[in-house]
Each structure stands twice: as C-alpha cells, then as structure tokens.
Design goal:
It is a single chain. A hairpin with a 5-residue loop joins strand 2 (87-95) and strand 3 (101-110). Strands 2-3-5-4-6-8 form a 6-stranded mixed sheet, with helices on both faces. Strands 1-7 form a two-stranded antiparallel ribbon. Mean pLDDT is 89; it is low at 5-35. It is globular and about 50 Å long. It contains 10 helices and 8 strands. By secondary structure, the chain is of the alpha/beta class. The protein has one domain: Zn peptidases (Aminopeptidase, 3-Layer(aba) Sandwich). The chain starts with a strand and ends with a helix. Bound molecules: zinc ion. Zinc ion (ZN) binds at residues 1, 124, 147-148, 180, 221-222.
C-alpha cells in the first residue's frame, strides 16, 4: 500500500469529509445496535498471533516464490478446519511491461453462499520479497508480520469464529488478494506501485456476483502493531462514509485506545481502491505509522500484539452482524 500524494485539492476533500464524521460520532456505542448476541470474546488474539507466526515460516511469500504457494495451501487448510468448503481460486497470468509472466491466485471463501446479500472482507497474502527500506540489509527477505500476515490472520480467525456462531444477516466473501505489493515487488519500492490481484477481481466481479454487486467491502492491512492506532483514510470516507462510521463507532466502543474517528491527513492506495473504483462502498483498516520497521527485516512477530489483533477482529465480528 502507499499513501497518495497530498495535493491541495485532496486536503480540501479530507477537511470536508472530516467534519461530518467527527460530528456524527455518537457517545453511545454502536454495539448496542447489534442484534442478537455476538460473542466477540470468542475472537482470540493469541490464535491470530499464532497464524502470523505460521505464515512467517513461508517468507518470502511474494509472487513466484515457494512461500507463495505454501501460503495459499495454508490458507485453504485453515479454511477447511473452519469447515468453510465454498473456496475458489481465481487464477490468471499477469505480465509485466517487459513481458515477464507471473502465475496469480486470488483465494475466495464464501460463507452462506446462497445468501443474496454479499459483503467482502479482504486482505493481501503476498509479501514484498526484499526489505528494501532496511538500512543494513536492503536485499534480505521482508518477513511481513504486519504487512500483511496480520490481515490474513484477522480473516482466518474471523472465519473460525463465524463457523461457531449463528449465521449473520449477510453472506461474507473472504478474499485473499494476490500481488498487492505490485508487479515489481521483486525489486520493491516501486514508485509506479499498483496492486494486481484486487483490480483483476474487480474487473471480473460478475464471475462471483452475477446478480448484482456486493453491498460493501472492508479491507485489512498492517493491523497487528503493538502500538495500534487506527484512523480512517479520506479515500475510505469518500467511498463508504456510513460503513466507516459504523466500523469506527464499534471500534471506539470495543478498543478506545486503538480507534480514533479523526481521519488521516492522507489518502491510502490499497486493495480497497479497485473495489471502490468498481462502485462497491469500500474502506481500508490500516495503521500505516509503523516506523522504523515498515518493509524492513524488522517487520517481525515481536512487533505485533494479540491485543491489537483482538481490537480489530472483535470490531469486525460485531460489524458483520449489523443489519
Ligand atoms: Zn500491505
């Protein structure tokens, strides 16, 4: 992911959007609106941490590496444990501008596949192969505990818990995107960065949604930082203002230390961008302030915390049960 260049026009947008969100933030927790009993405490941060640790064994998990396929196999095995059997692999070949082919795979797992109401919960499972921002070892593999094994862990633990709870009002599509780190992730730090998996999925929406678009999409990236601080970014507010408000209201009630309604001063480009461009209200949950570890050899398990993962996972769980 990458922050978009801040232009004066953009700053105006952020300011315009910030005010209604801040004013609309109510002191009464949105949790009270959740129908039925959502046992959020079932969402276990220690289990999610173990998933992050498991994924790090496959580093690097970037396109065309052995760890890439091992990660796909791991995700499928974990989904099978949660008894989610409607799992599809969307496969295609991506070619870089110089013609080099990459075998790509998005993994899609569907809950309540016959429910016409669909909500996307997504992350990316690939990692940047090189720790290009590492001062000492810029050619070393980038572990990617936070970027973004944490996102995969949030989705898999949410899937596990949902398999134990009564069905919610919407059918959920967990989407594990390939190639978020872009076509040049083997060189890393590409100034022309653009995700690959999410635009492909957005261009082929009808394969999964023949009767109409999904209602909304929540995307997770970099969500296990021990010092977690989550603010909505202006592109998310522009695409899905009501969903951002719902999610952050629940977050502030569930983990007030981790959620702040005040928007980020910059917009983010990530897997939510292609979904938003396709007309799906889409928002990103990210803590991009991760220095000095971001895309270095130091993006490791010890920088994460179970409590941070729980803050995000328990918020997501309650959000998915809103009408
Ligand atoms: Zn990422």
């Amino acid at each position: 992911m990458m922050p978009q260049t801040i232009s004066s026009g953009f700053q105006k947008l952020a300011l315009t959007l910030a005010l209604p969100l801040a004013l609309a933030a109510s002191p009464s927790p949105a949790r009270a609106q959740v129908k039925g009993e959502v046992k959020a405490e079932l969402w276990d941060g220690e289990r999610a941490m173990a998933v992050v640790g498991d994924l790090l064994r496959f580093t690097p998990r970037s396109m065309e590496t052995p760890g890439h396929q091992q990660t796909i196999d791991f995700i499928k095995a974990e989904l099978a444990k949660a008894k989610i059997d409607a799992v599809t692999q969307q496969r295609w070949v991506f070619r870089t501008s110089d013609g080099k082919p990459f075998a790509m795979t998005n993994v899609i797992a569907r809950l309540q596949p016959s429910n016409p109401r669909r909500v996307i919960v997504a992350t990316h499972y690939d990692s940047i192969i090189k720790a290009y921002r590492d001062a000492k070892n810029p050619d070393a593999p980038m572990p990617g505990a936070n970027n973004s094994s944490s996102g995969v862990a949030v989705l898999l633990e949410t899937a596990r818990v949902l398999s134990l709870l009564p069905p919610g009002p919407v059918g959920i599509d967990f989407v594990f995107f390939d190639g978020e780190e872009g076509s040049k992730s083997l060189g890393a730090g590409d100034p022309e960065f653009a995700p690959i998996g999410s635009p492909y999925f957005a261009e082929h929406l009808r394969e999964f949604y023949p009767a109409g678009k999904p209602e909304k999409a929540a995307v997770f990236d970099m969500v296990c930082d021990r010092d977690l601080h989550l603010r909505p970014d202006p592109s998310s507010i522009a695409s899905a203002p009501a969903e951002v408000k719902k999610f952050w209201d629940i977050g502030r009630a569930t983990a007030p230390h981790a959620f702040e309604a005040r928007p980020l001063p910059y917009a983010m480009s990530d897997d939510h961008s292609a979904l938003a461009d396709a007309g799906i209200p889409a928002f990103l949950v990210i803590d991009f302030e991760y220095e000095p570890f971001y895309n270095t050899t130091q993006d490791t398990l010890d920088k994460c915390s179970p409590k941070s993962l729980e803050a995000v996972g328990r918020t997501l769980l309650q959000y998915l049960y809103l009408p």
